[in-house]
Structure formats: structure tokens, C-alpha cells
Design brief:
alpha/beta, Gyrase A, domain 2, Four Helix Bundle (Hemerythrin (Met), subunit A), Rossmann fold, 3 domains, seven-stranded mixed beta sheet, six-stranded mixed beta sheet, flat, binds guanosine-5'-triphosphate, binds magnesium ion
């Protein structure tokens, strides 16, 4: 990386402080052109802070603190200078502009972290964790991200990689067999070795997606007919008066999104427009958006006005959510007498077209049943188990690579148990090794890195 990059590292807008970051071989010389403190920056030792003026020619841009980190002991592994300025958008823009005019290039999204990865300061699981930590909305997400940032995932994979390399070495020893180098592992031993490696790795990987709700959170769409009480439920679950509630069907026209944390899981709730046949153009657009929200959601709350009893329209709405994970929410239970309660669930299930859906009775007005609804949602999203924060979670990319590794190990194990030639065994074992390496990013192709870092924002 022979060029020097610069970017604003703090969010644009007003704040007490705003940071402009420079990284690369010219970071120090560019910074010393702009920064005027008690000592010339270029002669200052690493890991020091300096107070001074940032100037563009004779124009004083700001009074700032410069942080100096010399290669290789910096975030990126290169020379890094960070200017902590007064955090106004205009100040930031001027300081950044001056850096660019002195020869820096505007950093791409995630480029600081990408350089850290390329310079060996972080592996890929750690680089991904930087993005996750910044995006964390719950304590669980923060803990999991911080753990992988500190190398927990790569640390756990290391012994697996060593076992794999060891087995591969024995298989390859069979291959270039020479008289005096008799390999010490029999074919049966190799098969056993692969088998136990496969089993241990499968345990580590866990069930597909089981723990994903902790890492990624869940998105829940609240849908149903107009006036069922969707917006009331949305507000009640958020504990705030966010959406407009009214006795008029068709109150909500647009989709509304808000975040919450339930038992440590980050939840995004989406309130939607009521679904019904209508000629009203705005309402139809609302219904269209509701259907879109439905397809993006991990879980759907199908809300009905329990006392109104199932009607043909309800089956139609139930039909739209048919192939989605759904919870049937019987709302307005405060209006229901005890006798009717008992038969109500069955009636909705049979006549409302929701026969195998789990059902929760609530009242958005009194708050009855809301805890039950939250727990049912978490249990359903967590594959039927009580939500329990996992020790570590692989993200979708890492999990995919681990599954490829497991598949290759499975082929190798089967091959080792039959008459498959050693060459073929070695091919499968090498594929398994590549899969493991890909998790931590060893030998990751440019396109993979592009895809990962494109999700970062500029300045990370
Ligand atoms: N008694 C009672 N009334 C409720 C309850 N939930 C909602 N309502 C009332 O039902 C009416 C409709 O509520 P909304 O929350 O606006 O319904 P909605 O499903 O969002 O309606 P649209 O946005 O028109 O699709 C309002 O008058 C609410 O006060 C409840 O649990 N009990
Ligand atoms: Mg509404």
C-alpha cells in the first residue's frame, strides 16, 4: 500500500469532537504540513499526543490534538495520524480537504480495517468483528463482536487446523512413499482421525443458524387487517407512543421501523398498513409495502381483533403469510369474556386458516400477554429453544466456510474407509484446509475482501 489515505472517522454532523484519520507512508509528512504544534510532528515519538493549530496556508482551520502512531504499532500497521478536531461538519470537511490537497487519497469504505488485515494486524474474523461491534445494538451483540475482535474465533479454529495439517501430512507421506520413510499411521488410523476431527468441528459449528439471532438480531413484521390494533401493539411492545393509533381503519399508510432489545436480543419491529381490498391508491401502496416488509422479516406477528371473529378476509391475510414463520396474535383480549376465551383460539385456528400457527392472546391496551408474546417470538426465532446467549457465533460467511470444510472432511472420511486412492483423499483434505483458512481469511481473493469491506462505512 504505497499511497496514503484519509477520511473522517467520526459520524458527520455536530459533536464535541470529530476525528480525521490519515494512514500510509506519507501520513506524517502530510500531517506536519498542516499541523503546527510545539515540536515538528515528524520528529516526535510514536504513541504521543500533541496540541496545536491546523492550518491551510495562513488560514487557521482549527485548534486540535494530533495523535501519532508509527508503523507497525498502529491500527493499520502503517504510520497513522489522527486529528481530534472540534466536531463540526464544516471543520471536518476543511481539514479532510487539506489532507487530500497535500497528497492523501480519500479512503474507500472499510479501507483502514482492510489495511490492518492486509498488514496482518487482524485476521478476517477480527476485521468482520470491527464492523459488528460498531453496528451492535444489544449487550449480546457487543459481547460477541468484542470476543471475535479479540481473536476468540480464530483461536478456537487453530487446533483444528493443526490436526488437519497433521493428517494431511500423513496422507501425503503415503503419496511420496519411499522405502526408508514408512508412514506411521495406517489407513484405519487416518480414517479415525478424520472422523473425530469432523465430529469436533461439527460440534463447534453448531446447528445451522441456531445462534444467529444473537448476532444479527431479528426483524418482526406486524401485519393484519385494518383496525386489528397493529399500531397499538407496536407502541405497547416499544413502550412508547410511536405510531398513530385511531379508530379509523386504514390509519397506518407507510411502514414504520423501530428497534428494541428483548432478553438481550436486538429486535427490529415493523408496523405496517392494514391489508384489505381497496381502491384507495395510497392504501394500496401501503399494502404493497406491508407485503415487502413481510418478505424481509424473520418472523411475522399476524394480528387479529379477537372479538371480531374470523372472517373470509382473515383467511386471505393468513394466506399471504402462509409460508412465513408466523405467530397468530389475538388482540383486544380485554374485551373478551372468560367463557369465550376458551373457544376463541380454536375458532381462529380452524376458521381463520391458521391451523398450525402458535397463538398468543394479548391486549395492546392493558399490556396483558405481551411478555408471553416476546418469549414466544424469541423461542420461535431461536429454533424452538429457550433463548440463551451463546459463547460465540460464526457469521453467515464463516458458517458457510465451516460447512464446506465439514463436507470435504465427510468425503475424505468416506474415501478413507474405502479403496479411494490417496491422491483423492489428499484433494478432499486440502479442500477442507482451504475452507478453514477462508474463515480467517488466509488466501482470500480480492472479490471476497471487496464484498466484506464494502459493508463498512468510510473512515473505519
Ligand atoms: N379495547 C382494545 N382496543 C384496542 C386494542 N388495541 C387496539 N385497540 C383499538 O383499536 C383501534 C385500532 O387500533 P390501531 O392500533 O390503530 O389499529 P391498526 O391495526 O394499526 O389499524 P390500521 O393502521 O388502520 O391498519 C383503536 O381505536 C385502538 O384504540 C386492545 O388491545 N384493546
Ligand atoms: Mg396502524
Amino acid at each position: 500500500m504505497d499511497d496514503t489515505i484519509a477520511a473522517v472517522a467520526t459520524p458527520l454532523g455536530s459533536g464535541g469532537l470529530g476525528v480525521v484519520r490519515l494512514s500510509g507512508p506519507k501520513a506524517l509528512s502530510i500531517a506536519s504540513h498542516l499541523f503546527h504544534g510545539s515540536f515538528p510532528l515528524e520528529q516526535c515519538p510514536t504513541h504521543t499526543l500533541h496540541h496545536g493549530l491546523l492550518k491551510d496556508q495562513d488560514d487557521v482551520l482549527d485548534e486540535a490534538v494530533a495523535g501519532l502512531f508509527r508503523a507497525p504499532r498502529s491500527y493499520t500497521g502503517e504510520d497513522v495520524v489522527e486529528f481530534s478536531c472540534h466536531g463540526g461538519a464544516h471543520v471536518m470537511r476543511r481539514v479532510l480537504d487539506s489532507c487530500l490537497r497535500k497528497g492523501a487519497r480519500l479512503a474507500d469504505p472499510g479501507e483502514f480495517t482492510r489495511r490492518a488485515f492486509l498488514n496482518g494486524k487482524l485476521d478476517l474474523t477480527q476485521a468482520e468483528a470491527v464492523g459488528d461491534l460498531i453496528a451492535a445494538r444489544s449487550d449480546a451483540q457487543r459481547r460477541l463482536a468484542l470476543q471475535s475482535l479479540r481473536g476468540a474465533l480464530s483461536h478456537q479454529l487453530r487446533p483444528f487446523r493443526e490436526r488437519l495439517l497433521n493428517l494431511l501430512a500423513h496422507i501425503e507421506a503415503h503419496l511420496d512413499f519411499v522405502e526408508d520413510e514408512v508412514p506411521d499411521l495406517s489407513r484405519a488410523d487416518i480414517r479415525k482421525g478424520i472422523e473425530s476431527l469432523e465430529a469436533d468441528l461439527a460440534t463447534l459449528t453448531g446447528a445451522p443458524g441456531r445462534d444467529r439471532l444473537w448476532r444479527e438480531g431479528i426483524k418482526i413484521a406486524i401485519v393484519g387487517r385494518p383496525n386489528a390494533g397493529k399500531s397499538s401493539l407496536f407502541n405497547a411492545l416499544l413502550n412508547e407512543n410511536r405510531a398513530i393509533v385511531a379508530d379509523v381503519p386504514g390509519t397506518t399508510r407507510d411502514t414504520l421501523e423501530e428497534s428494541a432489545v428483548w432478553e438481550g436480543v436486538a429486535v427490529t419491529l415493523v408496523d405496517t398498513a392494514g391489508l384489505r381490498q381497496t381502491e384507495d391508491q395510497i392504501e394500496r401502496e401501503g399494502a404493497h409495502r406491508a407485503r415487502e416488509a413481510l418478505t424481509e422479516a424473520d418472523l411475522v406477528f399476524l394480528v387479529v381483533d379477537a372479538g371480531a371473529g374470523p372472517r373470509a378476509e382473515d383467511s386471505a391475510v393468513a394466506e399471504t403469510v402462509r409460508r412465513r414463520p408466523v405467530i397468530l396474535v389475538l388482540n383486544k383480549m380485554d374485551l373478551i369474556s372468560t367463557e369465550v376465551r376458551r373457544t376463541l383460539e380454536n375458532r381462529w385456528k380452524t376458521e381463520g386458516g391458521c391451523s398450525d400457527t402458535s397463538t398468543v392472546m394479548v391486549s395492546a391496551r392493558t399490556g396483558e400477554g405481551l411478555d408471553d408474546l416476546r418469549w414466544t417470538a424469541l423461542r420461535q426465532a431461536g429454533g424452538g429453544q429457550e433463548p440463551q446467549e451463546p459463547v460465540q457465533v460464526f457469521n453467515a460467511r464463516q458458517e458457510q466456510k465451516l460447512r464446506e470444510t465439514l463436507a470435504a472432511l465427510g468425503r475424505a472420511r468416506a474415501g478413507a474407509g474405502s479403496n479411494v486412492p490417496e491422491e483423492n483423499l489428499a484433494v478432499d483434505m486440502r479442500m477442507a484446509l482451504e475452507g478453514l483458512n477462508a474463515v480467517t481469511g488466509q488466501g482470500a481473493p480480492e472479490e471476497v475482501l471487496d464484498a466484506i469491506f464494502a459493508r463498512f462505512c468510510v473512515g473505519k
